[in-house]
Amino acid sequence: MNIRNIWFIMKREFNGYFATPVAYVFIIIFLLLAGFSTFYVGNLFERGEADLYPFFSMHPWLYILLIPAISMRLWAEERKSGSIELLMTLPVSVFEAVIGKFLAAWAFTGLALLLNFPLWVTVNVLGNPDNGVIFTGFIGSLLMAGGFLAIGASISSITKNQVIAFVISLIVSLIFVLAGFGIVLDFFSSWAPQTLVNVISSFSFLTHFDAISKGVIDLRDILYFVALIAIWLFANALIINVRKAD
Amino acid sequence: MMNKSVLSKTGLALAVVLFVSFIIVVNENLRSFRVDLTEDKLYTLSEGTQNILSGLQEPITLRLYYAERVAQALPAVKSYGQRVQELLREYQRASGGMIRLKIIDPVPYSNDEHRADQYGLQSIPIEGEEDPLYFGLAGTNLLNGLEIIRFFQPEKEDTLEYDLTRLIFQLSDVQRKNIGVLSSLSLDGEQYDPLKGEVISDAGSKPWPVMDQLRMMFDVSMLPDDIRRIPTSLDVLMVIHPKSLTDSTLYAIDQYVLSGGKLITFVDPFAEVDVPEKDPENPMAALTAQRGSNMPELFNAWGFERDGQFVVADRKFARKVDFGARTGNEPIDYVLWLGLNDGSLNMSEKITSRLKRINVATSGFFKQLDGATTQMTPLVSSSDEAMLVDKRVVQFRNDPVGLLTRYEAGTKQYPLAVRVTGDVKTAFPDGAKNNMGDLQKMPDHLDMANEPIDIIAVADVDMIDDQFWVQVQDFYGQDLAFNTSNNLDFVYNAIEDLTGTDGLISVRSRAGFSRPFILVNEIEREAERRYRATERELEQRLQDTEQKIARMQVQRSGTGEQILTAEQQKEINEARLLAERTEAELRTVKGNLRQDLDALEAVVKFVNIGVVPILVGILALITGWLRLRKRTHGRFNVNKTGS
Description:
A: 1% strand, B: alpha+beta, 7-stranded mixed β-sheet, 5-stranded mixed β-sheet
């Protein structure tokens, strides 16, 4: 695997986002949704607490909706327009292309996340927040976004239809979020052994994201997201390989 | 081609298996490998805990009863369950084998469940689950000592480490400090009279919660308030609300302090907790009853005094209190009840440096005397906007609204709790009067302090009353206590620091109670201040006008004339008009109270929701336009070369 190739793909993809208005529209929608939900659902101002809990607690749900919208076009579009053939003629391996495209999408999401910086400024002006906790909140959110993106990228490589890619990504993402929810676990605990239930809940995005955004960066939570991204990207590359052959 | 697909499928299956097992292995084996980025290091064992753990001489067994299956239905409890288990493992690791940890799932009808019940742990019925939830801890030592945490409430995560460390401290073989308490208040509730064999005070009255809390950590003995000699075995003497102590008792305290005894005293110009008995014969007695306490003889000898006339009002730290109808059923800033935080707690003194909030009520203040040989260090002070209020104003007719309306900010900080150290002389050079009325010295009388004295004085007694530091909620029939301030921690820290033990000082109150929007509170206060000033002015005008109308009407009836002159009529009408207008103005002022805050809220929301999207939108338009221009230029060039 060649880092330079990955970097090349990533740059090309990242710049590609801004060639069309779609990227701007996406960022604007993300910022508006994040802002409105923070203030009107999370009641950041009325709560009177100098932290960003109302902001970060919305992220799993925002990402379920918005990340599939980014990831759906990653491969589905290339397949539909046939540009995937062109990509494959380039002197880059499938893995490099997969990683490069993923990193570009991740960087783009990170940019959108960073553009929420006025919130950070606001709580620091209004009060005296624990900035360490806010920092880990951003890290946790970014890792979680990476997880959603990897899922979406992989699913996008199965189909030529972006809408199908969007819907399936959304459903799979939802499963990964809900795995930590009481109702879902109850369903399992009625027949499955306790260890299995524990395993299922340890696969939930929520469990790991909540842990990180409390202010502690635990190696387990980091490894979870890294491993999750790796496995989905691996699947992504395998699918491309097989489909390329078809 | 077929081969490749099969190969990929196997590869994928293998990868999934690898991933799942990796996560399971990581989750089970990689504990406590983490970076704590919280400001107060909330997730790292504090120095105090580590000291106590490493100092353990005898093993302690901790049994955590936790029904994980049942907790499944409650995500908050489940994640807290994990946190508790991990913290306990951390304790186990740091104790060097002195802590034995057992995690037990009390299956219904098992011996384990029976034992959990015997320990007194709480089981909670969970909706939709057959089995009750156990989530408590029993700690035992070799001497049959037992301490329990009945149930771990996720809401109390803030004090988890403190609760655990305290439990271990209680089970440890550390020599407990002896505390003597001398007070005119019946801090222990019912007083048992050994002669009559019955309880003297009202049936059912319980010890003050502060006494229960002190007994958890120290050996506490109550001293009679006419004691003539303080036992030298005491590590700390606490003198709480000393009302009219006899000279011989004061002399005893004096000699105790001079011989190196440590003292903490709470003296108050007006103790709200000291409610006088109602006397139906003489209702005025309750109003004029002595509710202050002081020890001027001793304080003067130690180079300071507690002012007897004034109490400290402070707009900046005022707590919001709802006085019902008197304040229009709305909470208002009550300038005599203070929630002291940033800037009022001495950050360079160990006792207060980690505290976040001290609550006091109608507190007095201390002054250093000229020519004092001692050094006075403020531990807790008012803000520099404080104002002094005559205590009689509070005693006879407490008017929270009036206090706020007439508030005039000062420029001085008043010390509310101080530590006094230095060399002193006795306040009783000739001893004190004995029963016969003769001056008598103790056999080992001291004229001068053996070593520099070290005492702590607090100008408020109410702060140790539970309503100022704890809030109790019902939790499945059990009392669940949440601390609302660090008052108790202050007392603990003071005792530990005076006795030179680090104890649990660094474990207490690591988490803040909250991190409020300071700016919002300031704006609210400023708006309130302006509103009160205008209100005062307008109300005065309204009153004057109404009086004027009344006067004119009296004049009219006085003269016996039935018909008003046109001039009189006009004047009355004008006055009425003015009164109406004033009332309307008053309403407007009240309506404007939130104006600044609403403006701030609007700005905050706009900046956070709108500004960046608008900027991104503009950027998009500009880049789009540039691109378009470039493209048309390009086409133009192509055309030119083509032609």
